[in-house]
Design goal:
With 327 residues, this protein is of the alpha+beta class. It contains twelve helices and seven strands. The protein has two domains: 2-52 and 191-315, no CATH class; 65-159, no CATH class.
Amino acid sequence: TQVNAAQESNNLSYLPMIDSLSDSSDSSMNIDPEYNDPILEIEGGRKRKLINKKKQKKIEKNTLPSTWEIKCSHANKSNPTICRVSELTEKDIIAFKTNLCKIDQDKFLLTMMSVSFPKRLDRKKTNNSTRIVTKYYIPTTDGENNMLKVCADVFCSITAVSRRRLYILNKTFLSNHSSPVEKRGGHRINPVHDEISESIKKHILAFKSKKSHHTRRDSGKSYLHPELSIKYLWTHWQRKRLQNCKPTASLSKYQHIFTTKFNLSFGHPRQDTFTFCSEQKIKISAETDDQVKHELELNLLIHKKKANRFFELLKETEPGSIIVHLT
């Protein structure tokens, strides 16, 4: 909630780069001349293989077991009117499990069930609840398209489907004459969540980045200032939202958008670190005279502008030109 988020925001440790932005624009965060490239939103985000643990658990849960056991009392005797599980072979069970498709499982199960209303009701009861009569069958592999009648316990054991799911399937089939419709997934339209996502994107796009010039081909990856982090950005975004009395989001949502909508990292490519730049930065940090410090910063800025222009010219190719690499 917003109240808890506000309390958490007040208890945060001192963040110099964020506290200076409480009453100012985002431009003060981009004071480093080295990071002057705009951030671009790309499809796919970072090139990483994200492991969806929730999806893996769901797949393991929905996977049918390789072994089965008879849970009814008809294993050693055959009763044609109730259950004929004793006539099933291991080959029949393997064929049934192999053909059982998870996507069309409900439709497949309905082909082996006979669902109807009871033919006789208790006339003494006035308020009779709706009852369902279901007969279960298992196909065999003898080539005669034979269906052996089994009880509900055997059917649940072979298909690894609960009695509750079978009841819902039967009840839906009697009322709608079709299998249940898949209602999970899909895009749930929520204007508040969409507005929060757009706000996070705009907040990230407000920063300046630095592109890598190590290769002639643009890899699409950019670098933010090394003193920043995802939590820094999220904390600043959260404070601004609370000041404007707008809903916020969790750090995980901010991180998800940061990694899936942008190809960003923190720091700078070490291949682009020149000796002159490193020396100038050390001199600037150690200089106490403001005038000399300003001259050093100006020289460093001019040097970086020239370097950026050089790499822009290097990427330009003219017809008939020959590119020579010196190593």
